[in-house]
Structures are given as C-alpha cells and as structure tokens.
Inverse folding.
C-alpha cells in the first residue's frame, strides 16, 4: 500500500509541474551517492539571450533528454538519479522570455521545467558539474556562454567536426517534396526554421563538400519545391529550400539522416485550421535526442501525453532524432518506423513491440482459434427473416449467388464439401457448419460454432431490413413547328385552222380532233353551240359576243402544275371563235403553318437496385409471307416506355441506368410498317428530388422544290404559268426530363 501511495504522490508531482500548478517537493529515498541539484542561476546575454546554469554535485556524462511544449510554452528535461537540494520548488525569474524555473522530484529523477512567455529555441551543453541551457530571443542559433570565467568551453577547432555526405531530393507518394540529407554522424546540431517564404536548415560546425555546393532545380518533380540551394558559411553548412504556393513543412532526424518534407497545403473550406492532412491530431512537441535509448524516448512521450504505453522487452537500441513542433502521435510514428516497431491500441493502453513480434503473436492466435473451432461443440440456431428470402440468404451463407432452385420450399446444405471452390472460399459458415431453410415460413436453420452464430446474427441485423424504394418520373416533351407554301398554275391554248387545200392544222396541249364547228342561234334569244378541240359550249348571241364555255372532255393543257389540296385559286378562260382560239389559265396557292406540343409522363416505382419497366402503346398489324408462301399477320410495337434500374447512394443520391423510348407509326412499306423511334440510353447521378435533362433531339428539315416545263418555265414573268414552286420547313424538338424521389418509409406504409 505504501509503495502505491508513493508512486501516486510522485505522479501527481510530475503532472503538477507540467500543467503549471504548484509542485510538491518530495524527497525520494535515493542513495547518498545520488547527484544533487545545488543551485540555479540565470545570466542575461546580449541580443536578448539567456543562460540558465544548473549547478550539480557530480558531473553529468551526457546532456539530459528534453522536450518542449507549445501551449503553454515550456522546456522540460529530467536529471536522472538526482534530487532537488536547492530547497525551492519555484524560482521566479522574469527575465527576457524566461518567467520562472520549477523543480519537482519524480521517482528517481528531478524534473526541471522552464516556463516561457513564448516558444524559443534552446540548446543544452554539459561542462563538468554545470548544465547550461541557452535560450534565444529569436529563431536563430543559440550560442551558450560559459558559466564562469574559470569554466570555459574548448576553443573551436579549425576543421569542422561534422560533414554532409549526401543531399538528395525525391517526390513523396502524396506529392510532397522530400529533402534527404545524410550526415557523417548523429551528433550534428541541426536547426530548421522559416525565413520569409523559404525554409532554412542550418548545420552547426559541419563541412559541406564542394560537390554539393550547388542549386538543385526540382521544378519538374511537380511538388511545392522549386529549388534547393546548398551553401557554406565558414564551418557551418546551410540548405535553403524555396517552395511555391500554399505549403507546410515538417522535419525529423533519425540517426544520421535528416528528412525535411514540404507538403502541398490543400485548403478545405470546412476547416478553420488548414493542413495536417496526414491525420495527426496530437498536441505538438519538440524532441532533440542524441543516441538515447529508444525505451527512454517512448517513456518521455508517455509522460508527455499521459498515455499508458507498454513496451515489449524485445525493444532495444538507441535513436538519434530531432523533431520540432510536430504532433506527438507523428513523433511516435517516426520513432516506430525508424526502429521497425509497430503498435496495437486496446482501450487506453498502447502496446509497442517489433512488427515481427506482433505478426508472430497474431499468427499463433489465429492458429489457436482455428484449432479451437475444429473441437468446439456445434449449436443450432433458428433465424426468422422478415424481408430477405430464406433461399437467397442460405446461398449467401454458402458463398453462392442467386438461387436456381425455382419453386423449392425447403433445402439443406452441409459442410465444406459441397459447392465450387470459389463458393467454399466465400462461404460465411465454418467448414463444419450447415444450413437449411423453410420457404413457407421464411426461416433458416443454422448449425455452427457459437462465434459463427453470433456473426450470422450480426449479418441478419444488417441485411434483413426494408429495401428503400424510388419513384422515377419521366417527362417527354415533343414540340413541332411545320410551315409549307406552294404556288402552281394550269395553262392551256387551243387553235385550229386550214392553211391550205385539204390541210387541217391544230395547236393545243393534247392530241385529238382539233376541228372547229359551231351553230349560230337562229333568233336573237336563241342558243347555238360550238366545239373547239376537247372543249365546247353554248352561244347565246348571234354576234358571238356572249357565250359560255363548258368542258366536254379533258382540257387542252400545255402546263398542268397545280397545287395539291389548294386553299385558293384564280381561273380564266378566253375564247375567240372567229379566230378558232381558246385560252385557259388557272393559278392555285397554298400556305400552311402548324404548331404542336406533346407531353408524355410515365412514372414507375421500384425497389433499390431492381429493374423496372413501364410501357404504353399499340401493336400495329401487317401482313407478311411465311416460308410456305402463305400470308400471315404479324405485329410491331409502337410504344412509349421507361426502363430504369436505380441505386441509392449512402449520401441519398440516386444512380440510374435509364432506357427511355418513344416510338410512333411511320409509313407503310411493301414489306411492312416502318416505326419511327426516339430513344435515350444513359446512366446519371441525381440528387433526391432533383430534375435532370437526359438529352434532347432537335431536328430541322427544310425543303424547296420547283416543277416546271423546260424552257418556258425559265421565262421571266410568263414562266410562272409553266412551273410550280413549293417550300416546306419542319422543326421538331424532343426533351426528356427525369426526376427520382426516394420514398419515405412512413409515407410508403401509410
């Protein structure tokens, strides 16, 4: 009980420091040889820089592990195997960016927290019994001054201590530009910062060979990065990255490789904060480790997040990593990938182990479950289906398709020996399971292991549900506009004479007896007759000035080009008997203009993913010859039809496979009847209740014709008596509208 209480108190002290609440100074039971934190001093330097000096009783072998918090801004590091001997838990400072220093005892270590007014860069260096923490006012290198005049750092060597061995650029799978820098060792001090519209990477005390001092033009890689410049300043190497557009950057170092990613920033109008499209959502932190045990790094992340992290005993080795302002879950992912680790989350516990270890455990678990299934007692369960057909559900359990049993009312299938190889692979039942069904009660009987029966019940809960229905309304609009105009004439002339002895001359539109005869009236009020060619009439005046022409046969026409079904006409006949001359002239004209609109609106309701068809029309009979030579009556359909297969998407939109047809009777031919067809076949995606225009057919036919008598029809003015002009314009437009609606289940039930 005492051990649990001690751990709880230590844990509360640790959390109180990180969260900014007053710390508890708890002295742990450490040996007398433990290191002691004796004093904390702060020295202001030019340029707004600060030096925090921690005086210890014993020298430190390496710089302690540190990490940073961004909200609120803090720097946290642990002094292992050390106790707080300053007698204070909180030391107010209020100089520059440093507000205060907090020290708390947690188990076998002392945790030091530097409370800042804003995030800054820091650097830790060890000199004998003094730990120096350098703080910079701006984002730049953080030089650390000596603690006292007697304790000074070694003078820098003429040659750089580190070296860049390779600089490479690759394009990531998500379109990011990735700069890879291989270093001579993992102890290189790296600083990644944004400078205006560029990203600058500084390598302290690092040599850059001449072969790498150049500009890389990476425009053709199609990433946000345009150029990468490698420069050298005395004993410091620098890489300047020039991106374009909207971007975000992240950098991390594993062992001797530094990776800088420049990712395109895809703006989402529904997000207040853009970026982080990888899905990392943890609180940001910064880590800077040099050859630290990977288990210690995982412990730091566990302390930072408050998560329960269980690390396998097989996790070992050291890691050198530098991360700045990255989500903690991304930092954990980088560490695991660099060491070949994987994790499993079970509730609030995160288990971390090598990927091979997880794979071996899961394989052994699956093998054990398979062996247990072969020995487990089978149970029988009865499932009553509401909407699914028992036969179809039986086939699904066996891994088959739709049923082919026709009108079967019951059936049974057992173990894995039945069915095709593909069916055995896709079956839901275990190899020992069997299923029967009763179509009359729509019930299935399943015998299998308890685990499989639970899975089948879960499947039934998912699929045995009412199928949504869709009402599809189609509207077909056919608009037509017809205009026709015609002008024609009939003209004829007849004349007979005797140019010489025994000679008779006739001129007219047709051959025949052109002899002329007439009988004058004997009295002033009497009536006489005359005949001229194929026409004749009566004479009512002895002076031959008053007569009536009537047709005794076909008129003598030299031009017979009238308008069919003329709506108006003008006729003229002129006879001069003294000259044996008869003239006939008739003009006819037609002009017609018609407009029409036909609206057809078929509607059909069908279940989701079920084909439906609705049609209305006539069957037109026609005669056709059989193989024996006899005549038979056949039929052709001329109908308006709508065929549709709807599919409702999860976002309540509708995908439809459509076949809309509008047929009508055409002309009658010797071989049968022609059918005029108008048809649209397509697939569309439409919102629920929205209307879409599938397409339209616009047809315009213009005809101009002239029928004439050669030569005479080409004469000016007079030629109109010898020709017929026709003009016709037909315009037809077809539009098809589709409106699908998902039927509400409540309305459907009512």
């Amino acid at each position: 009980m005492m051990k649990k209480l001690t751990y709880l108190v230590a844990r509360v002290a640790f959390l109180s420091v990180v969260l900014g609440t007053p710390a508890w100074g708890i002295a742990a039971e450490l040996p007398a040889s433990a290191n002691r934190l004796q004093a904390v001093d702060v020295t202001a330097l030019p340029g707004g820089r600060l030096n925090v000096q921690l005086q210890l009783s014993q020298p430190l072998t390496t710089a302690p592990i540190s990490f940073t918090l961004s909200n609120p801004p803090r720097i946290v590091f642990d002094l292992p195997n050390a106790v707080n001997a300053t007698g204070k838990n909180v030391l107010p400072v209020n100089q520059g960016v440093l507000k205060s220093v907090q020290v708390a005892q947690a188990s076998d270590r002392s945790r030091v927290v530097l409370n800042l007014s804003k995030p800054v860069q820091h650097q830790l260096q060890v000199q004998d019994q003094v730990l120096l923490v350098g703080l910079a006012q701006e984002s730049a290198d953080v030089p650390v001054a000596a603690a006292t005049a007697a304790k000074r750092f070694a003078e820098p060597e003429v040659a750089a201590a580190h070296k860049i061995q390779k600089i490479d650029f690759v394009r990531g799978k998500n379109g990011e530009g990735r700069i890879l820098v291989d270093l001579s060792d993992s102890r290189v001090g790296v600083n990644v910062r944004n400078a205006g519209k560029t990203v600058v990477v500084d390598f302290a005390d690092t040599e850059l060979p001449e072969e790498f001092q150049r500009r890389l033009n990476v425009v053709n890689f199609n990433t946000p990065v345009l150029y990468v410049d490698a420069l050298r300043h005395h004993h410091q190497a620098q890489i300047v990255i020039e991106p374009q557009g909207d971007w975000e950057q992240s950098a991390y170092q594993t062992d001797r490789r530094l990776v800088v990613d420049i990712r395109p920033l895809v703006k989402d109008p529904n997000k207040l904060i853009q970026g982080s499209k990888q899905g990392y959502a943890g609180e940001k932190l910064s880590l800077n480790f040099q050859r630290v045990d990977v288990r210690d790094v995982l412990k730091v992340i566990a302390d930072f997040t408050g998560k329960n992290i269980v690390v396998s005993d097989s996790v070992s080795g050291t890691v050198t990593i530098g991360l700045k302002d990255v989500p903690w879950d991304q930092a954990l992912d980088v560490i695991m990938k660099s060491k070949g680790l994987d994790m499993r989350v079970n509730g609030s516990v995160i288990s971390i182990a090598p990927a091979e270890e997880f794979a071996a455990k899961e394989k052994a678990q699956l093998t054990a479950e398979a062996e247990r299934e072969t020995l487990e007692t089978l149970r029988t369960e009865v499932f009553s289906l509401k909407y699914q057909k028992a036969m179809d559900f039986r086939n699904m359990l066996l891994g088959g398709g739709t049923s082919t049993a026709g009108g079967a009312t019951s059936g049974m299938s057992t173990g894995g020996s039945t069915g095709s190889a593909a069916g055995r692979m896709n079956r839901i039942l275990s190899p020992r399971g069997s299923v029967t069904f009763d179509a009359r009660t729509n019930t299935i009987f399943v015998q299998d292991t308890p685990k499989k029966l639970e899975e089948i019940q879960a499947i039934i809960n998912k699929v045995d549900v009412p199928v949504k229905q869709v009402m599809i309304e189609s509207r077909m609009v056919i608009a037509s506009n017809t205009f026709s105009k015609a002008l024609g004439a009939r003209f004829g002339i007849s004349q007979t004479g005797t140019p010489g002895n025994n000679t008779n001359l006739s001129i007219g539109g047709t051959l025949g007896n052109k002899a002329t005869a007439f009988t004058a009236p004997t009295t002033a009020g009497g009536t006489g007759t005359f005949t001229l060619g194929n026409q004749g009439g009566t004479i009512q005046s002895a002076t031959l000035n008053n007569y009536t022409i009537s047709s005794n046969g076909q008129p003598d026409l030299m031009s017979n080009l009238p308008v069919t079904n003329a709506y108006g006409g003008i006729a003229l006949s002129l006879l001069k008997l003294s000259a044996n001359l008869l003239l006939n002239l008739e003009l006819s004209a037609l002009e017609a203009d018609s407009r029409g609109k036909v609206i057809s609106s078929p509607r059909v309701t069908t279940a989701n993913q079920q084909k439906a068809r609705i049609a209305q029309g006539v069957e037109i009979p026609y005669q056709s010859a059989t193989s024996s030579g006899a005549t038979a009556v056949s039929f052709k359909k001329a109908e308006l039809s709508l065929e549709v297969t709807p599919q409702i998407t999860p976002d309540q939109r509708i995908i439809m496979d459509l076949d809309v047809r509008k047929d009508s009777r055409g002309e009658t031919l010797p071989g049968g009847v022609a059918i005029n067809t108008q048809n649209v076949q397509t697939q569309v995606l439409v919102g629920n209740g929205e209307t879409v225009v599938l397409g339209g057919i616009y047809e315009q036919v213009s005809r101009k014709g002239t029928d004439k008598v050669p030569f005479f029809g080409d004469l000016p003015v007079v030629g109109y008596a010898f020709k017929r002009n026709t003009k016709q314009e037909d315009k037809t437009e077809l539009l098809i509208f589709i409106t699908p609606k998902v039927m509400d289940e409540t309305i459907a039930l009512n």
